[in-house]
Structures are given as C-alpha cells and as structure tokens.
Amino acid sequence: MSADAFATLDFPRRLVLSMEEIEGRWRELSRESHPDSDSGDSDRAADVNRAYETLRSPGSRLRHWLELNAVEIPRNASIDEDLMAQFTEIGSLLALADAFMAKKNAATSAIAKALIADEEFAVQKDVQNRMGHLKAQIEAISDQFNAFEADYVAAVRGLEKLRFLEKWNQQCQERLVSILSS
Asked: Count of alpha carbons within 13 Å of 22, Cβ hemisphere only?
C-alpha cells in the first residue's frame, strides 16, 4: 500500500475535499519542503507531489481512500447500461476526432485548411460538449462522497463509474488538445 496521501497533506482521512483545499495545502507544503528552501527536503517534496496527484482526481482519491480502509476493489469493473451506451458514443466521437485529425494533417494548403474549418469547429464543439457531460457525471459522483464514507459498497460502485468517466474525459481532452494545437 502506498503512503497515506491524506496524512501527507495534513488532511483527515475524508473524501470530501475541495480542489481549493487540496491545491492550497499542496502549495503551502511544496514551498516548505522545496529543496531550495531553508527547511527543504527533496524526499518530502516528492511525497507532497505524489499525495497531491492522488487527491486531486476524484477517482484516485476514492480508490486511495478505499485502499486505506482495506476495502476490496474488484479488478474488472462491471459496466451498467448507461455506461455501455456512453462507451459506444465516446468510441464513435473519438474515431470521428481521429479521422478529422488525419484529414487536417493531410490539408497542406491554405484552401484545403479553409475547406475543413467548419468541420473542425463542429468536431471541437462535439468533443467539448462530451467533456462537459462527463465532467457533470464526475461531479455528481463526487457529490456522493459523504454518503460513500458510510457505505463501502456504494463507494466501490462509484469508483467503477469514475474509472470509465475519468478515462474517457482524458481521452477527449487529448483529442481536443490535438485539434487545437495542430
């Protein structure tokens, strides 16, 4: 088991933490432990950074909390009907974004790029809309963290959903960055 990220950032072991709390504590402890400061310690700074990475994502925070509470987490998460439908939709959207990127990379002249500008905007908008939908679902699960602290079964189900939602959000974000940066 890894070190207790909650303890490393001087938090009680609770799921409900705001990003402001997490970032604020991380910044404070990072300044104190930075190797260039008078009381700096590179090992402590690395621990603080690892703890921050663990707690900043709702999915990794929930997983870590469950592990610290010795709750068994199934290796193969089940997928409910809603997630299965989204899996299909996301797969299609990512394939659409990839196909567009291939088209955009092949467009070498200004005219060719201008001809695909509307399609680029549409794909970008579709990806952003999906990311908004995924973020809302992640937040809805995060809003249940108080209840999860008293119900490990519900917490594990929440983690199973977060695994998929966060992964899909990351994939969409990667496609969006690719579209915007090329």
From this structure: 20
